[in-house]
Amino acid sequence: MSTQNARRLSAGMVGGGIGADIGKTHRFGMRMDDRYSLDAGVFGRDVEESAGVASSLGVATERTYASYQEMAAAEAARQDGIDVAIVATPNDSHFEVAKAFLERGISVVCEKPLTRSSSTARQLVDLAERHDAILAVPHCYSAYPMVREAARMVSDGRLGRLTFVDVEHASGWAATPLELTGHKQASWRTDPDVAGFPSVVGDLGTHGYHLARYITGLEADRVSAQLHTLVPGRKVFDNATVALEFSEGVPGRLWASMAATGHNHGLRIRVFGDEGSLEWQHEDPHHLTFQDLEGTTTIFTHGLSSLSEDSARLTRVGLGHPEGFLEAFGNFYRDLADELEARRDARPSTIRELSFPTGIDGLIGVQFVEAVAASHAAGSAWTVPGSVADRDAEIAAADAELREVGGN
Amino acid sequence: MSTQNARRLSAGMVGGGIGADIGKTHRFGMRMDDRYSLDAGVFGRDVEESAGVASSLGVATERTYASYQEMAAAEAARQDGIDVAIVATPNDSHFEVAKAFLERGISVVCEKPLTRSSSTARQLVDLAERHDAILAVPHCYSAYPMVREAARMVSDGRLGRLTFVDVEHASGWAATPLELTGHKQASWRTDPDVAGFPSVVGDLGTHGYHLARYITGLEADRVSAQLHTLVPGRKVFDNATVALEFSEGVPGRLWASMAATGHNHGLRIRVFGDEGSLEWQHEDPHHLTFQDLEGTTTIFTHGLSSLSEDSARLTRVGLGHPEGFLEAFGNFYRDLADELEARRDARPSTIRELSFPTGIDGLIGVQFVEAVAASHAAGSAWTVPGSVADRDAEIAAADAELREVGGN
Amino acid sequence: MSTQNARRLSAGMVGGGIGADIGKTHRFGMRMDDRYSLDAGVFGRDVEESAGVASSLGVATERTYASYQEMAAAEAARQDGIDVAIVATPNDSHFEVAKAFLERGISVVCEKPLTRSSSTARQLVDLAERHDAILAVPHCYSAYPMVREAARMVSDGRLGRLTFVDVEHASGWAATPLELTGHKQASWRTDPDVAGFPSVVGDLGTHGYHLARYITGLEADRVSAQLHTLVPGRKVFDNATVALEFSEGVPGRLWASMAATGHNHGLRIRVFGDEGSLEWQHEDPHHLTFQDLEGTTTIFTHGLSSLSEDSARLTRVGLGHPEGFLEAFGNFYRDLADELEARRDARPSTIRELSFPTGIDGLIGVQFVEAVAASHAAGSAWTVPGSVADRDAEIAAADAELREVGGN
Amino acid sequence: MSTQNARRLSAGMVGGGIGADIGKTHRFGMRMDDRYSLDAGVFGRDVEESAGVASSLGVATERTYASYQEMAAAEAARQDGIDVAIVATPNDSHFEVAKAFLERGISVVCEKPLTRSSSTARQLVDLAERHDAILAVPHCYSAYPMVREAARMVSDGRLGRLTFVDVEHASGWAATPLELTGHKQASWRTDPDVAGFPSVVGDLGTHGYHLARYITGLEADRVSAQLHTLVPGRKVFDNATVALEFSEGVPGRLWASMAATGHNHGLRIRVFGDEGSLEWQHEDPHHLTFQDLEGTTTIFTHGLSSLSEDSARLTRVGLGHPEGFLEAFGNFYRDLADELEARRDARPSTIRELSFPTGIDGLIGVQFVEAVAASHAAGSAWTVPGSVADRDAEIAAADAELREVGGN
C-alpha cells in the first residue's frame, strides 16, 4: 500500500534477488509500517535478473545499478539519495558492500555474521562511527515483543540474581546433504570460502548468542566449544556445542545446529535466576513462560494489558492475535526508522535500552564465532572472545581437523 | 514501502479511524504484499479527526471525504477512482455504506456481520451481482495456510466421511462490564441498536460458523440454540451455544462467547470423520493436528514441503517462521487482488475452490444469526437458517426474554 | 506386596475376570495403599475361568463362588466375611448384584451407570441407607489431586461467581464398528439390552457430568439434548450433545462420544467464573490451568507446596513425578478405606466435603441419562432430570428414532 | 491387597524409613503387581522409629533388625529368607550394605549412585557375579513404556544413523539453600561426605546418562565437563554441563542440575539420527514425539495398538489412561521379579535386550561421575570414563576449586 508521504525513508538493497528469501523478508519488514520506500538496488549479480526484480518491486530503472560500488557512488551523489542500504548478500561480501556505503555516510543494515573476521567487523563499526552512519544488524528475534518482555523481566529483577543461561538454535533444515541437490542457500552456507568453516556458528549460533546477551545483559567471558560435522562429507561444521562463562561468573550453554533432524526452527532460550526462570521459543513466539521458585508456571501472552511498555509499543493487533516473524522484522525496521528519522530531522537519538542490534553486536558475534573455532581447535580449551589474534591460524587448524573428521 | 507501480490497485476506506483496530488491521493486510494503494477515505464521523488520520496515511486532502455518500459519488466519477472500498464501520451502517459503492459498480470489502438482517444482506449480494462488483467479507481466519490445508484434507478425503463438527469462538475480552468504562468497542458491541441483540453471534459466532463451513464444505440445515447473558446487566447476549445439523446429517456444535473469562482469543475447530480427525486453533495458527483411527497424532507445520499448493502459495517465509493474523489478512487481500486485477484487466476469474469469502458467505452468516435468535426465542426449537421470515418478531421475542433474564 | 496386618479390609469381587480391564483396574487401585485383602469372588460366569482368575489372585478355593447370590449369602454368614463387594459386571446386572450385598449389610462399590433406571438406582440408595452400608460409585476422575484442587478453587471463590461450564468425554475408542469384530467390551456397550440405548451417555456422559458436579458443586436443573449414531448400523447412540442449565442459572454444555475419531481418552472440563476460569484434562492429569480476567495463564502441578490439603493428602511421590489413573483409583479406595474402617471401628464418619462418590451420585447420573434420552426423543425439548416418570416410554421413543436413523 | 500366594517373592529393605520418600516409592513399585512380600527390614538407624515403620508395614517383629549386618546374617540363615534386599540408604552406605547381602548370595536392589567410587562399584559387580546374585539399580525412568518404545525405535533403525544426543535432568528442587532449613534430603545431598562433591552428577546426572545409554545403546568414550555451584555457600556442586563423545563418534550433551529454578522435575531427552529424531520428557511420560526429515511431528501415546511388544507388555490400563512414576517403578520390579523367579525356579534367564539396569549400569554411572569431576578439575579437558585412576586426587582438586568458587 503506497502513500504520498514525502517524509518516508528512502532505502536501497544489495542482494535479495531471486531465490534469496532473506531479501523478501527484509522487504516485508520494511513495508509493515509503511515508513520506507524502496528506491534503489542491485538485486543479484545477473543484470537482467536484477532488472526484473527491480521492476517488479517498482524500483526505477535509473536507480537499478550494475554493482554495489556504482550504487553507493550514485546514491551518495543524489540529493534524494537513499537513507539506508540493506546488505542481503552471502557472508563473504558483507564487508566490502557495507564499507562502500558507510564510508559515504549512508546507514547500513547488514545481515549477520557481520563479516568473516573480527578485524573487518571492527573496521565497519569504526567507519559507521566516523561517518555518523547507523550500522544495524538484523538479529530480529530480539524484536519480538515477548523477547523484549523477557529482557525487561530480567532487568527488573523478576528472576533475581541470574544463575544459568541455556540457549539453542538447532534447526533441521540441512540435516541431509542438501548442498548436493543444487539448493542455493545450502550451497553457499556449506561452502567454507563463503560461509567460513564454523558456518553454523555464524549463521545460527550468533542468533542464539545475541538473544542470550539481549535478554540477560551479560557477555561471555570465555567459551569451551566443540564443532561437529553431522552430515558426512559436508565441508563446514554443521553443529556446535558451547559451554560459556558469562560476566559475573554466570555459567551457560549454547547449541547451534543446521542438522538437528526434524526440528522446524529450533531457537529457544531459558534463563534461570535465584528467584525464577523464563523460557521463550521462536516456534511459539507470542508466549513467554515464567516459573517461580515453588515450580508454578505462568504463561504471558503478547497483548496482555499488564506487559511492559516495550512490549506494548510493538503490539499491532492485540491479545490473542498471533504476530510472527515478519512483524518482528517490522519491529526492527520500526525502531530503526525512529532513529533514522531522528537523525534526518536532527532530533535526539531514540535509541533505548532495548532497541535494535548494531555493528557492536555484529562485532561481538564475529568474535564469538572466532572464539568457538579457536576453542574447538585447541581441544575445547577455554577461550576468551576478542582474544583471538590471528584468526587465520585457527581457521587453518579447524580446517585440518574438519578434513580429517569429515573425510574430505 | 512504496513503489512506483502504476498498476497497483486503488483502495478507499470508510471507518477505521482512531480507536478502530479493525481499520489498522485492514491496512496492514493491504500493505503486506504491496498490491494496494490507499487513495481515498472517510476515517470516522469527526471531520477533523478523519483528516488527521488521512494525512498520516498519505491520503490526499481532495480525496478525504466528509461522508461515504460523497466519497462513493466522487470516486465513481473519477477516471482513477478506487477499485475497492473497505467498509470498517460498526454493524448498523454496513448496509447503507456498502450499497452506496456497489450500486456504482465499485467492489466492496465489508466487515461481518454483513448487515443486520438477511433481507438487506441479500440486497447487497444482488447489487454486487447486478453491477458486476465484488463483495468480499473478511472472515480472514479462512485465509490461514493451515486452515486452507485443513479444508484440503477434508476435500481430499483424508478424514473419510465426516461425522461430527465442533467449533468455538469463545473469547474473554468482555468478561467484565467493559462497556461501563467507556471502552469504545465494548460500547457499540453491547448496544442492541448497533450490534443487535445476539451481538456475540454476529461478531464471533459468524467467524466460527464460516470456519466450519469453509473447512468442511457443509451447510447447517437446522440449529437448536441457547443465548445467555453472562455479565449481569449487559444489554445484549454475550454467550451462545448451538447444536447444528449440517448437510448430509452431520451433527455439530458451536459455542460463541465474549465472556469466556481468561480466554485470549478462543477460536478453535475440530472436525471428525470416520478415518481421522483434525484440530486447528487460532492461538497456534501455524500448526494443524491430525489424529488417525488408532489415536496417533500428527502435527503439520506451516511451511512443510509436503503441504498442499493452497497452503504453499500463502507461505511468505518458510518452515519454522510463524506467520500470524496480519499475514492472514494479507492473504485475504492477496486473493482479492488476484480477482480485482483479473477483472480490471479483463482476464478470467481467479476464484478457486478455496478462496476469499464473499457476500454469499456474509448472507449465510446473517441467516445463521437469525436462526440462532429464533431458536432461542422458541425454547431451543430446531430452526432452519434462511427460514426466518420476520426477523423483527424474533428480535422482539429475544428482547423480551433478555430484559427478563438480564434484569434490565 | 503382602503384609500380615490383620486389620486390612476384606474385599470381594463380582465380575472383573478375563478380558475385563475394569476388574484389573479396581485391583490395582485396592493394592496401591495395601489396605484391602481380596478374599472372595465370582470372576465371570464361566466357573472354570473364574476359578483360574481366583487362583491367580490368591483367592481361596472355598471363597470362590459359583454365583453372586451364593457369595453374598456365604460371606454374610462368615465371621470374617468381606467388608466390601466390588461390582464390576456389565450394566444390566448392577442392580441385582448390588442389591444382594446391600440387603445383607455388606458395603458395595458399583460401577456406573449405577443401574438402568432411576427407580432401581433409588432402591439401591435406600437399601444402603436402611442397612447402614456404604454404596460407592467409582467416578474416579474426581479422585485426581488436581480435580480436588479444582473443586477447592471453586469453593474458595477463586473463580468468583460461576458463569459457564463446559465438559466433554469424547473418546475415539469405538469410532469403527468394533462390535462386529468380536471385541468384548464393544459388544456389550453397543447392545441396547445391556448398555441401554443412550449407551455413551451412561458410560462416558455420566463421568463428565459427575466431574462437572464435583468441581462446581452445581446440579443440572434442565437439559436439552441430541443423540446421534455416528457409526452407521450401530444399535445404540454413540454420540450425545447436551445443553444444560445448572442451578443458579449457570449455563453449560456436555459432549459425550465413543466415536470421536482419533481421541485417546477425551475427558476435559472448563469452568468459567466472573474472576477466572480453569481447565483440566485427563490426558495430562497432573496439571491444572487457571486463567485470570486479564488473560494470564497459570499452570499448577500436582505436588506443588502451595496446593490445598485435599490435593496434598493424595500426593504419593512429589512434584514432577506424574501419577495417573491407577493412583486415582487408589485415591478412591483410600478415601473409601478411611470410611469403611471408621464404621468397622465405630469411629465418626470420615466423609469430607470432597470425598468419594456414592449411590446418590450414581442415582443422579442415571436421572441425567434418562433426561437426555427424553429430551432427545422430544426434539431437544428442555427436560428436568428426575422428572422422567416413565422411562420405558422414552426408551421406546428413542428406540423408534434410532431404528430410523441408524437404518436398523 | 494381599493374597495367599505362597510363591510370592520375599523382600527386605534397608533404609526407607520416616522421611525417606524413596523407600515409599520402592514399596509402591513392589506392591503394584503383587509379586513381592515385604518380610524383613531395618527402616532407619533409630530402632524405635524403625520398629514403628516395620509394624505399619506388617513386617514381623522378629524380622525387624537393629542393623543391616544382623539382617543379612539372619535372613541368609533362614529357610524362608528374603529373595532380595532393597538398599534405600544415603549414598555413603550403599557399598557396605549391598556387600553384606551380595556376599551371602542375596540379590540386591541398590539406589544410585551405586557407590562413591568405581573401585567399590566394581567390587559389588564382581560379588554379585561370584555369588550368583542379581544386583539391580533402579534407574526406573528406563522402565517407562514410552522409553522402551524410544529404545526400540532406535534399535529398529527408525532414526537412521544416530548423529546427536541431548539429555538433561535439570530440576529446581534445591534452587534455594534448602539444606539450611533442616530439610532432610537436602542436608545429605549437599553434604560432600555423604553425597560426594559432584553430588548432582551422582544423583540426577547418572539418571540422564543412563537414559541416554538405554535409548541409544551408545557409551560415552570421553567427556569434557563443567561443575558449578549455583546456590552460594553450598558445599557441593549443584549444576553440571557435559559435552560427550559417544561411541561411533556421536557427539552429545548432558545437563544436570538441582538448582534449575522453577523446573518441576526436568528429565528430558532428545535423540537425533539422519532419518528422524525423538523426544521424551518425564513430565509427560506417556507421550513420545518423533520428527521426520521433513519436519512433520508425530506423537505416540502409551497404549496405542501399534506400539512395540516391549511397550505393550508394560501397559496396565490402556490408551488414554496415564500411568506415571509408580508404574515405572512397578515395571522395574516386574522385570526384576521375572528374573528372580526364573532363578528361584531354575528356569532360563528372562533378561531381555531391554530390561532392568544392573550393577554394570551402576558402575558405568560411577565412572561417569568420576570422569566429569576429573574433567572439570582439569579445566574441561577431555576425559575417558573408567580411566580415572585415583579418584581421591580428583576429589581433592574439585574440593579445592569448590571452596574457592563457593566461597567456603
Automatic annotation (TrEMBL), chains A, B, C, D:
<dbReference type="Pfam" id="PF22725">
    <property type="entry name" value="GFO_IDH_MocA_C3"/>
</dbReference>
<keyword id="KW-0520">NAD</keyword>
<dbReference type="InterPro" id="IPR051317">
    <property type="entry name" value="Gfo/Idh/MocA_oxidoreduct"/>
</dbReference>
<protein>
    <submittedName>
        <fullName>Gfo/Idh/MocA family oxidoreductase</fullName>
    </submittedName>
</protein>
<feature type="domain" description="GFO/IDH/MocA-like oxidoreductase">
    <location>
        <begin position="147"/>
        <end position="279"/>
    </location>
</feature>
<dbReference type="GO" id="GO:0000166">
    <property type="term" value="F:nucleotide binding"/>
</dbReference>
<feature type="domain" description="Gfo/Idh/MocA-like oxidoreductase N-terminal">
    <location>
        <begin position="11"/>
        <end position="138"/>
    </location>
</feature>
<dbReference type="Pfam" id="PF01408">
    <property type="entry name" value="GFO_IDH_MocA"/>
</dbReference>
<dbReference type="InterPro" id="IPR000683">
    <property type="entry name" value="Gfo/Idh/MocA-like_OxRdtase_N"/>
</dbReference>
<dbReference type="InterPro" id="IPR036291">
    <property type="entry name" value="NAD(P)-bd_dom_sf"/>
</dbReference>
<dbReference type="InterPro" id="IPR055170">
    <property type="entry name" value="GFO_IDH_MocA-like_dom"/>
</dbReference>
